[in-house]
Amino acid sequence: MKKRQFLKVFSVATVGAMALSSGVWSCAGADSKHKLKNWAWIHPLETADPAHSADEWKKLLNNLKKWGIDSALLLTQNTKIIGEVLPIAKEAALELHAWIIALNWPDKTTMKEHPSWYVVNGKGESCIEKPAYVDDYNWLCPSNPEVIEFMKKRVQELCVIDGLAGVHLDYIRYPDVVLAPEHKAKYTIPQDDLVHPMADYCYCEVCRSQFKKLSGMDPLTIPDQATNQAWLNFRYDSVTHLVGELYDVAHKGGKVLSAAVFPTPYLSKFRVRQDWIKWKLDSVMTMIYHRYEGQPVEWIETATREGVEALAGKIPYYSGLHLAQLTPKELGVATKLSLKAGASGIVVFPGNKMDEAYWRSMKEGLI
Ligand SMILES: [Zn+2]
Q1: N or C, where is the chain less crowded by C-beta within 10 Å?
Q2: Each residue of 86-106: pLDDT tens digit?
Q3: C-alpha 271 to ligand 1 mean position (Å)
Q4: Using one digit for the tens of pLDDT, what is the confidence trace for 208-230?
């Protein structure tokens, strides 16, 4: 499995007939404020063909369009790949967004030149030397002004690309504080749902000094580190602030901004400190990967409803569905449940795995 595929799978941490795609209001039960729209998270085709030939792209994008997908989220920051794919997407009448990995940044040069940009855990250990869970769990600190500038520059670089519809943020969060049950079982870590210092971030100099200014306390020495509300809020707000800055950059550059987030507002705050209900975004895509949470397919409806109700129509909500966790038949069920609970559409992950069988079932779910 390629690293990014692994990370995406790990990260629970990313269709109607033509007539059902853009331009048609969502069906009964869905949030009537927003149009029905379906998306696909797609990986670049480097694995199949290092040259990722135009023919390969053409086949994938035309198929996605045929299968009722309106917008593709392409996992790359590489402007050359985006430039190659854009005209093909345009010809297929598919909207293209650049899907980027935001804060998980295991880049050797950045780690060497800017070690202070990286998060530090509750034991005072940098994620560079002691990453949690896996070797490349090297994460940038969202509170650090230099990191914010760095992130703004990354979004800015994408804004100059003509024809690109938007930027899609993934890994816009802290490292997992408490893993979902299916992931937790794979590691020799405490199997409870408590916050442990080894996975509790961030206690870097910047965070400590900013929080001290705000509250008079040093988070490293407070007795209720795991539960202190002001300290929890500081972390939620830190990511919310970064997203707001990136939203302004994207909009100034004529692009929309969306994000992939954890499955429900509660679980997002609990597992990775994403308070996405408050984020400045144009749309949000939840990764409702039910199996990671040990839940049945029906839970997709519960999770969707929780998010849709919390957003109260502020922005469109799309249920992200993991094809590896769903049979074709279940994709139809999950699609139906998502729309019933108020989603404005679905996002399939990964779009590269879509086929006729999935499509037929998904179409039924959209009716
Ligand atoms: Zn920090």
Answers
A1: N
A2: 999 999 999 999 999 999 999
A3: 17
A4: 999 999 999 999 999 999 999 99
Question: From the CA of 263, how far away is ligand 1's center (Å)?
Answer: 25
Q: Specify the fold of 3-120+133-193+233-366.
A: TIM Barrel (3.20.20)
Widest distance between CA atoms in the chain: 60
**pTM of the full predicted structure?**
0.91
How many angstroms separate the alpha carbon of residue 190 from the centre of ligand 1? 24
| Ligand 1 geometric centre to CA of 210 (Å) | 9
Residue of 324, 248, 322, 317 whose CA lies nearest to 277: 317
- Are 246 and 151 in contact by the 8 Å Cβ rule? The answer is yes
275 vs 5 pLDDT, higher one: 275
Q: How far is the CA of 139 from the centre of ligand 1 (A)?
A: 10
Where are the chain's structural domains?
A: 3-120+133-193+233-366
8 CA from centroid of ligand 1 (Å): 23
Mean pLDDT taken over the chain: 90
Indicate if the pLDDT at residue 30 is higher than 60: no
Rg (CA), the chain: 20
Distance 121 CA to ligand 1 centre (A): 9
